[in-house]
Design goal:
This protein has 2 domains: about 150 residues, Jelly Rolls; about 70 residues, Arc Repressor Mutant, subunit A, CATH 1.10.10.10. It is about 40% helix and about 20% strand. It starts with a strand and ends in an 8-residue tail after the last helix.
Length: about 240
């Protein structure tokens, strides 16, 4: 795990506050948002690093920059991604109510998180009904994310399934280089997404033309993980 605290970050949460006031906590008074964010710590997280695991105590924060994924891990080592998280999104809200979640969080790109003081946040949630309500909304949104993932398994196009599988393959591979790369051939990729071998070269050509990937025999390098994640299926897209 690689986490580096930014000097002075705990004393200067202005960026995190601005993101929260523009997004998840837009309905709360500015003073309340600042109170919730005060006393936290900012951390830079290297691409490929684990942000936290299911065994850790509750952690709660906002993504300042980068792309992270939330995934579950089976006993035999298989992984399934349940959510991709971008700038301005919260991590860990349901765990503040229900305890540590059975998930892992990994940075796909160099990222920055602002982790809040969990004890302070819990105290304010208990004392302020408006804050409790936005946390309830956040928990419901996480439920909707899960439902969308389930729907995406049915409704996603072949291209969207290819993008998802490449991101997941690359993210689950030990990071030994600067860029994410999926080690897979075209037939394996077709088998994994439920398509035929002839369709995959066309999709990879489209992704290359969009400067999203670079391919070589048995290897697909992801050039822009954040932009590629925007290709994933969404009912609101």
């Amino acid at each position: 795990m690689v986490r580096k605290q930014v000097p002075g970050a705990g004393r200067s949460p202005q960026v995190a506050v601005a993101l929260l006031r523009d997004g998840a906590w837009a309905s709360l008074p500015a003073q309340t948002v600042e109170l919730l964010a005060s006393g936290g710590k900012q951390a830079d997280i290297a691409a490929g690093s684990t942000v936290y695991t299911e065994a850790e105590v509750e952690r709660f924060g906002v993504v300042v920059r980068g792309l992270l994924r939330v995934y579950m891990l089976t006993g035999d080592g298989r992984q399934v991604t349940v959510r991709y998280v971008r700038s301005g999104a919260l991590l860990g809200a349901p765990a503040l109510v229900g305890g540590p979640a059975p998930v892992f969080v990994q940075a796909l790109t160099d990222s920055t998180m602002y982790f809040m003081d969990v004890a302070r946040v819990k105290r304010i949630v208990r004392e302020d009904a408006a804050v409790a309500w936005v946390f309830a909304e956040e928990s419901v949104h996480r439920l909707y994310d899960v439902l969308e993932e389930l729907a995406g398994n049915t409704f996603a196009t072949v291209r969207q399934r290819v993008v998802r599988h490449l991101l997941d393959l690359a993210a689950s591979r030990p990071r030994t280089e600067d860029r994410l790369a999926a080690i897979v051939n075209q037939q394996e990729l077709a088998n994994s997404v439920g398509s035929v071998r002839e369709v995959v070269p066309r999709i990879l050509h489209e992704l290359r033309a969009a400067s999203l990937v670079r391919t070589s025999p048995g290897r697909i390098e992801i050039l822009d993980p954040l932009r590629m994640s925007l290709e994933l299926w969404s009912r609101t897209a």
